[in-house]
């Protein structure tokens, strides 16, 4: 009897240890997946073009822009991810608790912005397969959309999304670093200009921040963690690491592309204005470089398609039980609508301009709302938000608010020209 009891205890202990190991391993996988989902959502076709164009304009001084934008990105993500994790609520649910109806407004902004930009992401995926394999861009876009849809059809969609984001992110980083080394950039000049720039472009800084943590991207990782059940104060250290990791991955990509372009610029080679990033890769490594650009463009675009669809739909999941029940199918519909619009209409320039201006407003509205929520006990309980995060978060809200208004003023006349 005694021996039997001991054996039962041993078996129970072994099962408990195994359960804790599986739970810990799963948590690490999800945290890594959330970081890469955020990062790869930010690294889309626009990311590649913006980095190339600003490097052409600012040369080595763009290193300072990258540094400042990364610091602002980290502040924004640390605030957003922590408050989402502590409250256990999605962004729109938190906003509705701060001010009834605000969550609906935020959700509408996110969904409209995500849908419009997803048209560009689908187009980018088509162009990526065109450069990689020579496929017609429309055929490439349809194939890419089917690949993205497949991710959400399979049973473990969340895990599949994490794996795709990690694999695509790894491939992009390796290829980008190869091209950066190939162009032999003046690394010394870049390091000096990181801290003592010859020129400063605040517009470039704001554009980079908006493109990295603006719109739906702000919430991509935080919402993924909630869906995986990672929430509560006990997870804050891991959530913090994951949010910073996402920005670091984005930063590595940005730096590698910046160095690649800088190497081409300092050699006096002419970059094609029609497709700046593709031109850089071709100048750096010939036809192989152009094919590599296709791989990077496709990986950047397809992960942005997945991230935009997943995060945008996550903003309406709490509005009705049917949406929650069938959210994967709604994500698929989101991708289908984006693809059909690109195939039959093309890129609606005016809509993209309007949404670009709208997207610039989302970060200050979202971050400002969550900072208010961090001091409401009915939302975060006894949690005390770090003062330094609040102060730096408010600064980001002020800077982005001012610059987003300037962006609106600049872009609205173009819409009605």
From TrEMBL:
Keywords, alphabetical: Membrane, Transmembrane, Transmembrane helix
Domain of life from the UniProt record: Bacteria
Source species taxonomy: Bacteria, Bacillati, Bacillota, Bacilli, Bacillales
Species of origin: Lysinibacillus composti
UniProt name for this protein: Divalent metal cation transporter
Membrane topology value: Multi-pass membrane protein
Transmembrane feature ranges: 30-48, 54-78, 98-119, 131-152, 164-181, 201-222, 243-270, 290-316, 328-345, 351-375, 387-409
Main location: membrane
UniProt subcellular location: Membrane
Pfam entry (one): Nramp
Any Gene Ontology CC annotation: plasma membrane
GO biological process terms, semicolon-separated: iron ion transmembrane transport
GO molecular function, one term: cadmium ion transmembrane transporter activity
